[in-house]
Design brief:
257 residues; TIM Barrel; 8 strands
């Protein structure tokens, strides 16, 4: 199913999976935790975003959990994103792209995030594979972290990245922090047909209404991680996550003029 159809049928909310052992209930495995939260939140989300760093911190257990989560998410018809912000060149980038896009891989998903700051060598292997496989790439464009402006905010960097998005808008989405709605509005004028992935709603204080208005309510999706995953750190974590997901689903999908 295309991203457009997935959003039309299931809304704009993505469940971000950032399993943190300091916040997860004790004696619950990473797979059990993730699986229970996904099942509870499934009616309110269009997909999942797997933050690789958190899973890799669990070593072999984390990698095994990723494979199982991807398999189960596909059966549940959820859209799946790998959030690894890959940013290497040549054959390394090509290897990542092969792993994440081709159906024969157990890690094949619908989209990945990349860091474009090493140049076009880091981007085109992903774009080329995504075009062939009808998948998506989401490249950092304007992030929500406090120091994000130091490099990504430089006018000459923005100019280069925007030009790249304008050329490859069908598969190349942009990561734009929901905490900067004025920047979302500015970028939407230059990128009318680009998908925006807007993190920051929830724990970071981003305003979904302002972000949606900036994006002209068009081609925007919202990943939320901590705000859903840790709505409760007790044994009722899955039920609490579902309630928070339902609340956020209503906010990001409410009809607007």
């Amino acid at each position: 199913m295309t991203l457009e159809k997935q959003v039309a049928e299931r809304g704009r909310l993505i469940l971000g999976l950032d399993p943190n052992p300091k916040l997860m209930p004790k004696k619950v495995s990473i797979l059990e935790f993730s699986d229970n939260v996904i099942k509870a939140c499934a009616p309110h989300i269009m997909g999942i975003k797997i933050q690789m760093a958190y899973f890799e911190a669990f070593d072999v257990e984390g990698i095994f959990a990723i494979r199982e989560i991807i398999s189960k998410a596909k059966k549940a018809k959820l859209w799946i994103m790998i959030d690894g912000k890959r940013g290497d060149i040549g054959s390394t980038a090509d290897s990542y792209a092969n792993k994440y896009y081709f159906k024969k891989s157990p890690l094949s998903v619908n989209a990945v995030t990349i860091n474009p700051l090493m140049g076009s060598d880091t981007v085109f292997p992903f774009i080329n594979k995504a075009e062939v496989c009808n998948k998506h790439v989401f490249s950092l464009l304007y992030t929500s972290n406090p120091s994000g402006d130091e490099i990504l905010g430089l006018p000459e960097v923005q100019e280069k990245l925007i030009a790249m998005h304008q050329e490859h808008g069908d598969v190349l989405g942009a990561v734009v922090g929901a905490t900067r709605p004025e920047k979302i509005a500015e970028l939407r004028e230059k990128l009318p047909n680009t998908w925006f992935l807007c993190p920051g709603v929830g724990a970071q204080g981003g305003d979904a209404d302002a972000a949606l208005a900036g994006a002209k309510h068009h081609k925007v999706i919202f990943p939320v991680s901590r705000g859903i995953l840790y709505a409760s750190t007790g044994d009722n974590y899955a039920e609490a996550a579902a309630r928070k997901a339902q609340e956020l689903y209503t906010i990001v999908n409410a009809p607007r003029p």
